[in-house]
Design brief:
By secondary structure, this protein is an alpha/beta fold. The protein has two domains: about 200 residues, Alpha-Beta Complex (Spore Coat Polysaccharide Biosynthesis Protein SpsA, Chain A); about 55 residues. Helices cover about 40% and strands about 20% of the residues. Strands 3-2-1-4-7-6-8-5 form an eight-stranded mixed beta sheet, sandwiched between helices. The radius of gyration is 19 Å and the shape is globular. It starts with a strand and ends with a helix.
Length: about 280
């Protein structure tokens, strides 16, 4: 649907934060919008909160439920039924600022050669009541027209930072059902398609972190399942970078190679010999 923005929100056991995330989408100045909440097997009151939100806004909100499979699988479930010309991914503990959609759609309409618009994100630590940072988070304050080569070394934006044209995502394949680095790998496949970026020099979103809450990336250097997912992700990221011509001699590739070597050793230490060999 032309100009419709579909926001996909995976959630697992975050009833209060989910409501705040959804309200940040409902508060957007742009219309039309649709919100797809994907309940990823929650075991608390999250399903009830999701249903209350849907009942209060039936014209805008749909709710999907599935067995717990991680954020990648949940995002893909939402994407499979999305109807929007534009796609927004939003984690259930983060927030969008009110004019994000309006400003980003405006830029994408001005620059039809671009398929992704990103702006400046900020951070807030919930567990100690910290104020929202004034400095840009990661690399969101830097204009770039491509994800690589910097993407080799870091996800230099957050999941909620960009707004995508659906057409940019249609041919890169589905989200992987991994629980570590699935977002980094997905963005590498997007980068390999050589999409153009356009930067909005305004604040668009907020990452909120609760230091008392376990994160999916914890134990990423010791948990065999997470290590195996990271190994698969980094092999794909390497292939994507080479596909678009990132040189083996570039500073970004050399740093990435050192990271892959460390990951190889961590895999070997936990008995993942095949993964360690592949990374070598």
């Amino acid at each position: 649907m032309a100009q419709l923005i579909t926001t996909i929100i995976p959630v697992f056991n975050r009833p209060l934060l989910l409501a705040e995330a959804v309200n940040s989408v409902l508060g957007q100045t742009h219309r039309p919008i649709e919100i797809i909440i994907v309940d990823d097997g929650s075991t608390d009151t999250t399903p009830e909160v999701a249903e209350e939100l849907r009942t209060a806004h039936p014209e805008s909100i749909r709710v999907l439920r599935q067995a717990n499979g991680g954020p990648g699988r949940a995002r893909q479930s939402g994407l499979d039924v999305a109807r929007g010309e534009f796609i927004q991914f939003l984690d259930s503990d983060d927030l969008l600022l009110p004019k994000k959609f309006e400003k980003q759609v405006e830029l994408l309409n001005i620059h039809p050669e671009c398929h992704v618009c990103y702006g400046i994100s900020h951070e807030q630590i919930l567990s100690d009541g910290s104020q929202i940072t004034t400095t840009p988070l990661k690399g969101t304050g830097t204009p770039r027209d491509r994800l690589f080569p910097q993407l080799l070394n870091e996800r230099w934006w957050s999941t909620h930072t960009p707004l995508y044209k659906y057409s940019a995502l249609a041919n890169i394949g589905p989200w992987k059902p991994w629980i570590n680095e699935e977002d980094w790998e997905y963005e590498a496949r997007l980068a390999a398609s050589e999409v153009r970026l356009v930067w909005l020099a305004e604040s668009v979103s907020i990452t909120r972190r609760n230091q008392n809450e376990p994160h999916l990336s914890s134990e990423g250097s010791s948990n065999p399942i997470k290590l195996s997912h990271r190994a698969l992700a980094q092999q794909s990221i390497f292939r994507c970078a080479r596909q678009v011509g990132v040189s083996l001699d570039s500073p970004e590739m050399k740093r990435f190679s050192r990271s892959a070597f460390l990951l190889s050793r961590q895999c070997a230490e936990t008995g993942l010999e095949a993964e360690a060999a592949d990374l070598q």
